[in-house]
Fold this protein.
Amino acid sequence: MLGSRSIERAGPSGEPTSRFPGSYYAATIGPAIDAPALHNDATSDHCIIGGGYTGLGAALALARAGQRVTLVEAGPIGWGASGRNGGQVHLGWERDLTSLAAKLGHATAAALWQTALAARDHLDTLLALDPDRCDFRPGLIHADHKPGAVAATHAHVAMMRDTWDYDSLIALDRAQLGAMLNSPAYHGGSFDSRGGHLHPLKLAQAMARAAQAAGAVLHAQTLCTALRPVADGWRVTTPHGTVTAGKVLDATGAYARALVPQTDAHVLPINNYIATTVPLGADRAQDLIRNQAAVSDARFVVYYFRVTPDHRLLFGGGETYGYRMPRDIGAFVRPHMLRVFPQLADVPIDHAWGGTLAISPNRLPFVIEPRPGLYAANGYSGLGVALAPWLGDAVGRAMAGEPNPGYELVRRLPAPRFPGGALLRWPTQALAMRFMALRDLI
Ligand SMILES: Cc1cc2nc3c(=O)[nH]c(=O)nc-3n(C[C@H](O)[C@H](O)[C@H](O)COP(=O)(O)OP(=O)(O)OC[C@H]3O[C@@H](n4cnc5c(N)ncnc54)[C@H](O)[C@@H]3O)c2cc1C
């Protein structure tokens, strides 16, 4: 039953929501946006729970559609995955189009590809909201750490060109990759000029400012502790006030904790870690990734990295499947970083943080309507930078009653639950993930 259990904190790891984690992003955004906590009983057409890309995308769409919308966020705006992620902009879905076509049919795969292109275009419109364009830089390298994987990557490039008319992706042999990336760890790969990287917290803040400017009411430091159906919609209870709204969107990502139990069974929260080095200086940083692209590799527990505008290496690597994060995240990430860049052995790390992302069983995002007037969108499976703002926008427009093919497409996708449901997904799936992660070591 919704709301029967009261929520005391956001997130599986129990991190404090009173401030951002100690990330490079939090240190480089300047003043956080002004979104005072809720201290009264309010009514609204719509209430969004969660101030990440999904919730902010929906709030922006609803406000632009002239609807009254109130958003509550447990921490500062962008506190969750949206303010901590690797900032890598991928075009597409976590599963390639060949396997999507095999499972869902060619027509659905084609619609998903068009949607991925639309999500990427939508991201460009959001970058334009920020004076720094959220520090966006173009280019994404896929790097293969096993020599035997390069042929499959090149076949994928050919398939994208020949079947899907996508010619922004090119194949890289070892020498071509080496000209871009100064690491002994890789054997070849591909380069996507439509990919890129950005400052994820600047993106969240830019979306929040635009939503406020369009009329949305945002409340940071406002944990939803219970959600109950009432005669005229839903009541969202928070420590110092309530919001009564006709429609509610659960946009709590991997930080949901039994708020809408029907959603929990569809996602597995996974902790993933990032560290930044101290500034390396322009020349040393340029020598690591010579074309300034983002890089992500082929590991099951992917390594992803890029150089920041102030010439640090920002490196993501390592996962844990459980409630606790490592005590010393910098020490946890460092060996992964040195496997890729042994030349950085003398370089200290100065920011390190973890975040929790939501994976779904089929690695596709989903929208569900578990009860009338209650929506949930989640499960980006590590590819939310382009997809979550877009899906948030699509759900927001659907909540406003606007016909919306993107929303209908995602709503019709299969949205399986993890075996064992909300309670037993952890032990069974975490064991399976650990097994898959071991294959990276072979
Ligand atoms: C370490 C890491 C690296 C990643 N790297 C990339 C990448 O490079 N590229 C990419 O495309 N994707 C990446 N992702 C995934 C991407 O960040 C997510 O898919 C995306 O941010 C999800 O957005 P969201 O709005 O659904 O969730 P979130 O951004 O997590 O937002 C959910 C919000 O809900 C709030 N909340 C939870 N419960 C409550 C409650 N009861 N009351 C009020 N508020 C509540 C939380 O505080 C949180 O801020 C990464 C994720 C992580 C964690």
